[in-house]
Amino acid sequence: MTLRVSLAVLALSLSSVLMAQDAATTTEPAAAAVATDPAAPAAAAEPAAAPVAEAAPAAPGPGNADAGAAKGAVCGACHGMDGNSADPQYPKLAGQSEGYIASQLAQFKSMQRMNPIMLGFSAALSEQDMRDLGAHFAKQKVQPGLADDSVIADPASPYKGQRIVDVGQKLFRGGDAARGVPACMSCHGPSGRGVPGPSYPAVAGQHAGYASLRLQAFKTTPAGSPALQNANYAVMAQIAARLSDEEITALASYLQGLHTAAEVTAR
Predict the structure, then answer these.
(1) Distance from C-alpha of 145 to C-alpha of 138, rounded to nearest angstrom
(2) Alpha carbon distance 246, 25 (integer Å)
(3) Which long-range contacts (CB under 8 A, 24 or more apart) does 21-26 make?
(4) Nearest in space to 132 (alpha carbons), one of 214, 211, 62
(5) What is the pLDDT of residue 50?
(6) Which CATH number, 1.10.760.10, 3.40.50.150, 3.40.190.10, 3.20.20.70, labels domain 144-267?
(7) Distances from the Cα of 176 to the Cαs of 23, 52, 252, in angstroms?
(8) Helices (H), the chain
(9) What residues form DSSP beta bridges with 176?
């Protein structure tokens, strides 16, 4: 009896071993199949790291006049090293507000204000460069010229017998309400120093030749011009269109000689 039980246990043990071997043999190919089957889903990839956002350029700070002096060396060829140009086709920048200079450089760069020469110079400037240049020229002192005090002799002129400078002064200080021409000083200030906040430029002491060219450009701006999208430009175009060529000449001459008593003493 004992012999029969031992044989039975031995047979059961051998049977279990054989079954385990069969199971191992059966599962190994399956495991290999999982590893080599191209249709099997790949293991989930680790999520890619989120791209690092580039830092936004810093907002420009107040202009640095010392930095602007170094950057503005190239400007001196046309506008004068101290911002007082010798050639009247180039505007004086001395005494102009920082904000106005920076805004005009930005307009040149964006081609909102078209000038091939200034486009080339402004293209590489950052907003901070523009503020620095503005700060430098704002510190300089404009050197006013002389207004034309000759008498108008043209018999066809409505201003016959008046001095050119007086015609310009009347328009600057009083305008002409009947024609919808406001006094220039209402925006540019009684002394012609401008109003930096709304970016109304200083005009006192500016070359008569340059001031006349700008007023004529405003006057002849065609309807639909992109330049009219600028609010300040559009206002000047409307005003200049109501001025005669003679009035533009007189006004430009008056601006050239406009200065304060303190400036005369300083000179």
Answers:
(1) 19
(2) 110
(3) none
(4) 62
(5) 61
(6) 1.10.760.10
(7) 109, 61, 16
(8) 2-36, 65-71, 76-79, 98-110, 116-122, 127-138, 164-174, 185-188, 208-219, 231-240, 245-257, 261-266
(9) 181
Token representation of residue 186: 């209402």
List per-residue pLDDT tens for the chain, 267 residues long.
443 434 333 343 434 433 444 444 444 443 344 344 444 444 445 556 666 555 556 677 899 999 999 999 999 999 999 999 999 999 999 999 999 999 999 999 999 999 999 999 999 999 999 999 999 999 999 999 999 999 999 999 999 999 999 999 999 999 999 999 999 999 999 999 999 887 899 999 999 999 999 999 999 999 999 999 999 999 999 999 999 999 999 999 999 999 976 665 555
Identify whether the C-beta of residue 137 lies closer than 8 Å to the C-beta of residue 78.
no
Give the domain ranges of the chain: 61-142, 144-267
**CATH topology match: 61-142 vs 144-267:** yes
Listed residue (214, 159, 161, 162) closest to 184, CA to CA: 214
Spatial CA neighbour of 81 closest among 89, 98, 93: 93
Q: What is the dihedral of CA 160, 214, 135, 183, to 10 degrees?
A: 40
Tracing tokens 């920076």 back to the chain, one arrives at: 102
Which residue has 């011009």 as its token pair?
225
Q: Does the 61-142 domain belong in CATH 3.30.230.10?
A: no
What global pTM score does this model have?
0.76
Distance CA 227, CA 237 (A): 10
